[in-house]
Amino acid sequence: MSEPLNPTRTPAFEAQLRKRYAAERRFRLAGLGAILFSVAVLAFLLVTMTFNGIGGFQRATLTVPVDFTVAALTVPEGSDTAAATRALEAQGLPQVVRFSAEEAFGDDAGAELGADAWRIVAAELAANPELLSGEHEFALPASEDLASALAGDGQAHLQPLARRLAAEGKLANTFDPGFMTRSDATDPQQVGIWGALKGSMLTMLVTLALAFPIGVLAALYLEEYAPRSRWTDLIEVSINNLAAVPSIIFGLLGLAVFLTLFPNLRSAPLIGGMTLALMTMPVIVIAGRNAIKAVPPSIRDGAMALGASPIQVVFHHVLPLALPGILTGTIIGMARALGETAPLLMIGMRAFVATPPDGFTDPATVLPVQIFLWSDEIDRGFVERTSAAIIVLLLFLLLMNGLAIYLRNRFEKTW
Amino acid sequence: MVTDETPASAPKMSTRDVSVFYGDKMAVDSVTIDIPQEFVTAFIGPSGCGKSTFLRALNRMNDTIASARVEGTIELDGEDIYRSKMDVVQLRARVGMVFQKPNPFPKSIFENVAYGPRIHGLADGKAELETVVEKSLRRAGLWDEVKDRLSESGTALSGGQQQRLCIARAIAVQPEVILMDEPCSALDPIATAKIEELIDELRGRYAIVIVTHSMQQAARVSQRTAFFHLGKMVEYGETSDIFTNPREERTKDYITGRYG
């Protein structure tokens, strides 16, 4: 008498088993493919950005020897840089610098020195007045036309000059630390990102200061106190919808409400931050509610059974445990706000702002708007500057996300 | 084991015709019971018979469930705990609770025990708080195991230690009654034995009510047993009587293992 075969030992079952494994392999390959594709896209983005943008951190500089002995220039005793610059301008420093360039490189080269080049000389002289007693070489920004010629395009008649100067080692693209400290300008040789970066920071501070407390309190109230009713359902639906509203609508809202209330604050980080806070708040509310929901009820029960009042349960137990999740959601919302352009265009943050904002009510622009503005410029030199600005924006974003991960790990608790 | 004494004084807690509803569904049906001060009272019965729901009504933990509703009166030392003037925070400080699954806070062992005294202002200063923590941990039989690592997380302890930590946490606020909702159901037999020993030691100092699935456990630790079935309290009496000489047919069927 043969033993009855276990149903899993039949050939039909084994064939089915092989099919199961094959399906699993296919699924794994598909997942791997998806990952590889996204990594490739990301790598392509980063590589092209870095490649294009690295030039944006450089500018064409002319090495100009200036002989101060031919001119009787003096730096007034005890004057600061601004006063010294004014005094030197009155004494004819701009002409001296230009004359030196013409002497060194020929008459046509003198005109191709950046218009503000003498200010760099003035600043160095103010810091170091002894230079006035002799001859000294200064690395000065070339004009935009000469910079284009060095890059191999732009005006045809400048290209031989650029080639000659480059061959002599007098004209070269050098690293430009000033890009991080200057602000917007009409000349791509003179632009910097600091004004927009500072504007972004101020705007983000306002956004965080408004959206975080309001969002967390709203989430706490909805989760812990609000009775389940048709009204809370309605509020929940509204908040979810608000998170999905196109950002330009928030810009129009900011224009219609905030700028009507504060007409003098057009282009100010305060208004920009308030507008972006409207946009960020629903994201924080949704993330916060999910994080609060994820706190195990047993912890709540334990605290309540000891006689903790509802507010003690919330602040001693629920909030500390939900904080990592709330922070993650906050940073996601903030990162989105940081990259937002459209709503800020609506409230006037697209103006040409050549000085960094000194406070929350000064006119300012922000990084993405600056990128948008530069990408719109005709001048060839702005292309690389735009890429450089994008790199700065991405680094800022990376910094924020890094901070989020740090905070999350710091507050994360296991149970 | 004490079995044949009669309660000397008035009951610590007493309920009259208490019914608990979840929405329209009746989970507990007119339960009338007196809980003595000096004994351990066990609630036994099959799953879903309402014993845990009834237990949670005794310190108003059901308040947190929006659809739950309690009818009838529950008195603690003769005061109705559902009257409007009753402060629920104070009630829960007087009637502590230990849950089925150990639920230490994700804080240090010290903080777990110190939390209750701290929020109620029961200890002045650090030294007194340390005394309270040590006393509570000693009483819960956990002190020797954790005295060198009070700053470690309470969640790093083993399941049985966690449950004793939860008992220490409940003891630290000096409650009058301790409710235990199947405190050993998530523990292994050795940890269970320790908890049962502990319950026996705590008897007399606190009125203890324990809900349990295990009839052996009820027989081991309790002096009074109430048998619940389908939301009703079928029988209540001295534990030895319930197990050796039940009056009701249903009780007999349950304890002889015919169902449940």
Describe this structure in words.
- Chain A is mostly helical and 415 residues long.
- Chain A is built from 16 helices and three strands.
- Chain A has a three-stranded antiparallel sheet with strand order 2-1-3.
- In chain A, α8 crosses α15.
- The longest helix of chain A has 44 residues.
- Chain A is extended.
- The mean pLDDT of chain A is 87.
- Chain B has 260 residues and is an alpha/beta fold.
- The longest helix of chain B is centred in the middle third of the chain and has 15 residues.
- The interface between A and B is medium-sized, with 22 and 27 residues.
> Into which percent range does the helicity of residues of chain B fall?
25-40%
> Number of helix segments of chain A?
16
Strand order of the largest sheet of chain A: 2-1-3
Mean pLDDT of chain B: 89
Number of strands of chain B: 10
Number of helices of chain B: 10
Give the uncertain stretches of chain A in residue-range form: none
Number of beta strands of chain A: 3
Radius of gyration of chain A: 31 Å
Using only C-alpha atoms, the radius of gyration of chain B works out to 18 Å
Oligomer: heterodimer
SSE run of chain A: HEHHHHEHHEHHHHHHHHH
Rounded to the nearest angstrom, the distance between the terminal CA atoms of chain A is 58 Å
Poorly predicted parts of chain B: none
SSE topology string of chain B:
EEEHEEHEHHHHEHEHEEHH
Q: Pairing-aware structural class of the strands and helices of chain B?
A: alpha/beta
What's the main sheet of chain A like? 3 strands, antiparallel
| Largest interface pair | A-B, 22 and 27 residues
Query: What value does the average pLDDT of chain A take?
Result: 87
